[in-house]
Write a structure and sequence with these properties.
The protein is mostly helical. It is built from nine helices and no strands. It folds into two domains: 73 residues, no CATH class; 95 residues, Winged helix-like DNA-binding domain superfamily/Winged helix DNA-binding domain (Arc Repressor Mutant, subunit A, Orthogonal Bundle), CATH 1.10.10.
């Protein structure tokens, strides 16, 4: 796997893109596009944390690339992670969600704050960074079935939390 030697932000962005696309070349291009987009947007917009800003740009660009490539070939891990959350999070294109994005964002952040650190990291790695379950299991010294159980229970709690907040699924 390609890893830039100069900075950790490049490795961080590359790992985000690679977890979505599973292609070194596509991931490298997405990281480069993220740097270009950051260069163009930073003068009027000053991010509080550059690394997080670059990671978000990389993730959005990679997901767009994924959607374009999806017609050509299937990305099983990305599809699976997105499908797992589809039953919990409302459709982002629905009118109700568009008008309540801030409420949804606050509900998600509130839920994440209630989780134990290890569970929160596992949940975020799977559904934000789209890391494969095997990689998460290896990183925490857990079995894949244990990680799947943690994710299942956390999704159930997440769904209940959203319903309690009045967010229709």
């Amino acid at each position: 796997m390609w890893k830039p030697k100069r900075n950790t932000a490049g490795r961080y962005c590359f790992s985000i893109a690679y977890n979505i696309l599973f292609s070194e070349q596509d991931a490298e291009e997405c990281v480069n596009d993220a740097y270009i987009n950051a260069w163009r947007s930073i003068p009027p917009h000053k991010p509080s944390c550059l690394r997080t800003f670059l990671g978000r740009l990389t993730r959005n660009i990679s997901l767009n690339r994924y959607n374009r490539n999806r017609a050509q070939k299937r990305y099983a891990n990305t599809e699976l992670a997105l499908d797992e959350l589809a039953e919990v999070i409302p459709d982002p294109n629905s009118e109700a969600v568009e008008s309540d994005n801030m409420v949804l964002k606050e509900a998600i952040n509130g839920f994440l704050e209630t989780l134990p650190k290890k569970t929160r990291i596992i949940f975020v790695r799977r559904y934000w960074y789209l890391s494969p379950i095997k990689n998460i299991a290896d990183a925490f010294g857990l079995s894949e079935s244990n990680v799947k159980s943690i994710l299942f229970r956390t999704r159930s709690k997440f769904k209940a939390h959203l319903e309690k907040e009045g967010i229709v699924i």
